[in-house]
Amino acid sequence: DDELTYTKVQQDCKDFGEIEKIQFGENSVKINFLFITDCYRAYTELKNKDFYDNYNLSFGNDRCGNTSALDVVLYLQENEFFEV
Known about the structure:
Layout: H1 6-13, E1 19-25, E2 28-33, H2 36-46, E3 56-61, H3 69-78
Parallel strand pairs: 2-3
Antiparallel strand pairs: 1-2
InterPro entries: Nucleotide-bd_a/b_plait_sf
Organism: Hamiltosporidium tvaerminnensis
Protein name: RRM domain-containing protein
């Protein structure tokens, strides 16, 4: 199978970690994982696969999932930015 599809990318990346989103562009694909370490593992493996030579691969982690409002409040309290 030499066509870049959602299923192909998902199959190639499933062992690296949980995928948040896959986006396609012209000769490109962007894969967002929930954790940056999973992004790095996927990048180092897939950049060496001949199948992806003709595609621009980019990876990222979940932009919203790493920090909650509670995490921000606790951080601010710990660093004495405000008092409760």
